[in-house]
Structures are given as structure tokens and as C-alpha cells.
Design a protein that fits this description.
The protein is an alpha+beta fold.
Amino acid sequence: MSRRGGGRRPDFRRDQPSPVPSPSVQAGRGGARGRGRGRTGGTTPARSPAPPPAPANVAPQPAISTPSSSSSPAPAPSAASSSSSSPAPAPSAASSSSSSATLARELESKLKLPAPATVETAPPASSKAVRFTRRPSFGTVGRKCVVRANHFLVNVASRDLFHYDVSISPEVPSKKVNRDVIKMLVDRYGASHLGSRNPAYDGRKSLYSAGELPFSSKEFRVTLVENDGNAGTSSRRREREFNVTIKFASKPDLDHLQQFLRGRQPDIPQETIQLLDVVLRGKPTTEYTVVGRSFFSTNLGRKGELGDGIEYWKGFYQSLRPTQMGLSLNIDVSARGFYEPILVTDFVVKYLNLRDRSRPLSDMGRVKVKKALRGVKVHFSHNDHHRTCKIAGLSLEPMNNLMFTLDDDQTRVSVVQYFRDKYGIALKHVNWPALQAGSSTKPIYLPMELSMIVEGQRYTKKLNEKQVTNLLRATCQRPNEREESIKTMVRKNNYSGEGLVREFGIQVKSEMTLVNARVLPPPMLSYGQSATENPRMGQWNMIDKKMVNGGKVDFWAVVNFSRLDQNVVFQFCQALVGMCNKKGVAFAPQPLLPIKSANPSQIEKALRNIDMECQKIGKRLQLLIIVLPEEKGSYGPIKRICETELGIVSQCCQPRQAYSAKMQYLENVSLKINVKVGGRNTVLSAALQKRIPFVTDRPTIIFGADVTHPQPGEDSSPSIAAVVASMDWPEVTKYRALVSAQTHRVEIIQDMFKVEHDPQRGVVNGGMIREHLIAFYRSTGQKPDRIIFYRDGVSEGQFSQVLLYEVDAIRKACNSIQSDYTPRVTFIVVQKRHHTRLFPEDHGNRNSTDRSGNIQPGTVVDTQICHPSEFDFYLNSHAGIQGTSRPTHYHVLYDENAFTTDALQVLTNNLCYTYARCTRSVSIVPPAYYAHLAAFRARYYIEGEEESSSSGGRSTVRENRPLPVIKDNVKDVMFYC
């Protein structure tokens, strides 16, 4: 396996706060590739360096090469992979900053295979080198085209750059206060002590200058004058004294950066990139509200209401990235929820949808408001008194009953009486609780009607369905509109004209980057009775076609929890059964039991009664059709009971859809039912003909994996990992799913392989990978010789750890089945939450767009805006529906199968046409999509537990409890579809 410098810091791709900024960089002229890097570790065969990007008019398309089926299997791993050894403990969230050097050593000992004699090796540039798979070449398959990317070339002039450590005493957690201190220092001492330098500051511990400061270490005393938010009157000001120590730390090397961008230096110069990123973020940081890598302001676009006391602000995302063309500034428009700057009483009315303010809040309402407002700053004012406080909670008692002791330590009064007697204020909402600030031992009670929410505070909770709809409606833009919005934002920011940016010799081009791209051809799809379909623009239909392998449903039943009439439900079921039979599912015309109607409050009882009736007549249900109640909240309990307790495969239907019973809906449900009862809807024609390179020549299993985390603010719920695997080589369309709960907000999948010690059986090997491999053998009669693993949800800062722990777990799982069993592994990270957008070069040319105005399905980019040397590409595999399409970023971390670029890109694109739930290509590769669905489904199994946790203070992370076990007959089919 190749290694790469230093492991990556978070986070080039996500619009989230990062412990360490992960800027991206561009420099010099486009397309500089250099010699490429030498290989170490021997995890993939030696390859020649990638050629420069081909011009758009280069012609012939070579066929995709197929690996020789006689190639020998991968050599056995080192002793570190022995099944008798316990797996390395998965890192906790706090361990992400552990030594990259340690990671490198562990990677080498656990993953390295003997290097072929032909591999040219180069010594690592540092002891921290942890490199990933190099790009084997640039792709050639497909129709060449040009697209625009929201990447703006950054040129950096030669400068002597210096990094200084900053220590501010007393320490304050606020970056804003730190920046105010340094600004005051520069204003006061810039000319006399700093050599008239204008340094860039990151708000924490680092200061950067373009040129050396006239000292190596120096202390300063700074007096910061600010309004005292806790003062009794608005006119009072407070002076705070700070001691600031500035000390030389290092000299970032621009030449090292240029060498990395040309592919001649293996380890990324993170310090230099971080410096340039801080400089480019300098002005926006002082002018706008900062949220992670994004900036928001009411000056950047019209704000609007989302509902429930929340509004949206518009802004932009900004990230500096190293790419093949040099340094690139990735700019995208963005929007985010913020608290409305309104009185807390008005917020409560909106948040709880109250109609009568005179009524007291219910206990449930009080808890909801407390959760929504905890940590929010309010400006409390009356008469001439003003103060800013952070809400810690709400009082248990209403204000007319809420008593506290005055400063004389004797007199006890209510909050209502205190404000009436001391300030002459007659409070109105006396039967509502008070806001509580301060500490639990010395609480400060603030009437809601005198407290205004401070403007500019982001809403960190999960948006509800109505808010999401309103946000999408307000911010959805067609590609030409979004492109223009981005250009307007770049012009408004005027990076190259800003003083600090000029001082560091940085220039940012104002034009989007033109990128060489290709449109991959869609695959031919096979249906039943030898029918085929050639998709157009990412979609097709099944008119007069049957499933390629129809399932069989002999025993089925129906339960209706809605208010629909029994006859309506009967007619819907008849229409659905007719559609399934028409599409090739052998569906018995009559249910095993008469149609049942049940009260939504008796869901569990109704489901158990149906199961008992089936047992009495000696039949096992293959499918239960459920018409859901009109009220929300029943889907989760139904799935938990059916899948983990009764072993029933179910298909839920909304009552409004059952009432209308439209043909399109019935067809879509038939697709889901077929795969839930073991059928296949469609397969790639090339799979049936065994013509898929790297898949059909030898037994191959394709995995997908994802980890979903609890919503923000939920500290008591575990993260859930899901791993799916194909069970039907060579068709690779049936995916079996396994799920597991793990430590709260840990991204590394902990249950991929495990070793347990049983008192009777001794050492017992287990885990999701091992179970899937055994199931594959039972299904096909063969062990897979090749593993292709699509891993979703991993940020770039986690690449090294995912590679270390998860590939090692795969190795150990294989080794536990047979000591010399070492299938070759390709590990690909799937990234959807990034901010790269691709636009047609000419929006008016209908030959280069789909019907929504987006780039065409199958558009792939592996040139200018991709990594300087590693194996990654952007693939837009789907047709746009509304708004601007987002391509998926695929990054190959590990490749023992020696994939060619064309083979992997075409395979990934073709798989996107095999998604079971619709007749459209999807935006991410189906194994990763299915893993996300399975993890999301498993969240329902523990639904309600978090609500039962403490209604008082902040909930605490509890001991991780396993998920309910999915019944074997359920997990063997695609129950999650």
C-alpha cells in the first residue's frame, strides 16, 4: 500500500467545524504533474506515473482492460492479521489526534504485502508518511466534454513566510475576543515592534507573517476596552488586561508545497496550506458570522423564516484545496438556520405553536423550550438596565410562584413581586417559567418577556420536515442561477484586492475553472424474458417488462391502521397484487388471513395477533402489507416489532397513496416488494455475459458501509454502523445487510471483526465482515477472491484511521475463516457532503445538459480539480430533478486489485443503474446507499429510548447497548428497501 504524508487534517470536504482547518491549495500553472511518487509497501503492482490530462479533443477510446483470471491471489498477510489475535481497539473520537507516525508503523505491520521485485521504492519524506493509492492513469472512456467547476485558481508569489506561536493570558475560549486582542496589539505596536508587518491570526495559537518579525520572542501587554454585558447600565465600559507572548515557531516552505502539487513530494505541507487558508479567511472572519468553513450574514442575501422561531441566513462556503492545477479556492453558496432575534415569549409562541398566551406551559412544552434554548444568548433589558446572558435552563415553577432570597439573605420574594416592587414593571406572563442563567447554586432568573434573543446565533438542532422544506424552497437554484450566485459572491469578496491577501502575495482568479470531463455511456440493463433496456439521461421505464427474477409470495396478509374503509383497502391490495404479477412476481391472489383493521394505539397487539394466527394454521408469512395510520410516529415501532421480534418482512403504505392507488405508485411498490421477497428487479447485461472487468472473471463480493450518528444535541444515543454485501455473484444486485450499535459519534466501524472468549467454546470469531463472507459462500458455493469495499461517511481527516482499522478488520475476518485466505481488497471512500459543483460550459446548449439544466448523467472528472497524485474522481451518475446536482467524490485509499481508472469509473457508474427502488440511476453507488438505508432503519429499533432519558439537565452518554437482533429470514433479503 502506498503511504501519504502526515495523515490528513479535518476537513477538506464538510461544512462543519474542524479542530484544525483543512485548507486546500493551488499554485502555479495548471496540469503540473511531475514525476509522480515512488511506491512503498507493495500493496499494488507498480505503475508508471500518470500522464498529463488529455486535451478535450483527443480521440479514440480504448477498451477497458480486463485483469487476467490467472493472476495469483494476494500473498498472506503478516502475523499481525492472525485470527487468534484480538482486533486493534477502534479509536475513540478523542483519539483522532494520535500520532500519525504510530499509524504509519501499524499500517506497515498490518497491511503491507511483500513488494514485487519490479516496484520502484522511494524513501518516505518523513517518519509520518502514510500514503494512499496513487492514480494509475487518467480515464479515457466516454464522450469528452468541458464543464465549469466552482474552483478558483490561487497563485502565490514567492515570500518568506513565518509561523509564530501565540499565548494569551488569561486564556479565553472566544476566538472573537482573541482576535480583538491581537488586533489591538497590531494597531498599537505594529509600527514600533512588528516591523510594520500585518500578520494573519487564526484566533487560537498561530500567527503568520510575510517576512520575519524583528524578534524571536516577545511579550506584550494589551488593554482591551469593551462594553460590559453584565453591567447595570449601557454606558459602563470595562477594561481587561491581557499578556500576549509571540514566539517564533517555524518557517513554512512554499517550495515544498509546489513540489507536492507537482506530485514530486509525497507528504502534504499542511502547515503552509493552513497559513494560506488563514490569510484568505481573514477578512470574511471579521465581517461575517463563522460556522465551520462557512460564513453567513444578512448582508449576503435576503433572510427568511423557516418556522418555529428559526430563520435562514445566506452565505458562502470557502475551502483551500490542493489540486492537480495547483491551489484551488472552492467557493459555494450556502444557507443555515439561525434563531430569530425576537423576544423569548414570541419564540415560545412560535416554537410551541401556542394560540393562548394566558395559559401556563405544559411540562412537555417547558422541556421542549428548555432544550431549544439551552446555551442561547439573550439580551435582557428594562429601563436603563442591560445585560447579556447565556440561558442555562428554565425554572420549574412559574414566575408567580418562583421565590428567591434578596441580597439581605433574609427576605424571600417572587420574581413577579420583585420586578413590580423594584422596577415598577407588571409582568404579563406570570404563569410561565423564567429563564435561568448563572449557575445552579447561584441562579439568575430572567423574565422571558424582557429577554431578546441575540442576533446571529446558529440553530444547531436538526431541522424538522417543515423547516427543511422551507429551506429548500428558499435556496433551491437551477445550475445557471447557482453559478451566477457563486460568481457574485467571489466578486463581492474581492480576495485579491484585500490588503492582508496582497501582503502575502496571494492572487485569486475571479473565473471558475474549466475542467476536462467525460460522459460515460449508460449500461445495458436486462429484464425478464430476455428483454433489455438502454437508459437515456439516467432514466428508463418498465413498460411491458418483467423483473429479471421475480420473487414468490404464497402467504401474505394485510393490516389496516388507517381510517380508510375496508373496501378501499381491499381494492388497493387487489391492484397491488395485480401489478406485482404483471411485473413477474408470483403473488398468490388471496391473503392467508382476512384483511385486518386495528387501532393505531394497539399496533404491537395487532401484529402479534396476526403472527399467532399464522402459526396456528402452520404457515409463515412471507409478506405483511401495512396501511399506516394518518398520524406520524408508527413506522418505527412497526419495523422494530416485525423485523427483530416476529421475523416478518413488511411493506408499509401511506393511506393517501392506498386511496388513490396510482399506477406509478403501484409499480414503485412492486419494485420494493420483489427484492424484499428475494427477487431481482434488473441486472447489468454485462454481468449475465460475464463481461464486467474486475468483477465477473472471478468470485467477487461488493461491500457498502456507513455509520449514522445521532442528531446534534442528542448525547445519549449510540452511533449505528451498517455493512451490506452482495450475495449473488456475478449479478451483484442482491445485498444482505447487518447493523450494529457502537460508541456515540465514533466513525470507525467497531464490529467489522471481533474475537470473543466463550467459557464453553473458547475463542469465538465474529463480526459483520465474517458473517457476510460466510453468507456469500452459502449463497454462491464459493469464497470471494476479490473484495470491493465502498465506504461512505468518512471525512479526509479520518482516512488514515479508517484504512488502518477497517482494512485490518477485513484481513482478520478473512484469516479467521481460513488461515491462508487472503482475497485482494480495494477500499474506496464515497463522499457526498462536499462543496464541489460542476456546471455545463454552455447553459444554453441542450446537447450538453439534462432536462433540469444540469450536467448529464455519467459525467466524470479526474483531472484539474482532483488530487495532485492520489486516485480520486468526481462522478455525476444521476439526472437532476430540481436545483443543482452534486457529484459524488470517490477516493481510492487502498487497491490490491490494480484497478485501471476506466474500469473503476465505469463499474461505479454502471452500479448506479442497479438501485432496486426506482428506474433511475442514483447519485451514489448502491452498496453505499443501501448501507445508509440499513443504518437509518436500525435507528428506528432504538427510537424512543433517548426521549425517555432525563427531562432535566443535559443527558449523558450511556453505556453502549446492542441493537435488537434482526431475524435471520429478514436479514437474508433486502428488508431495508
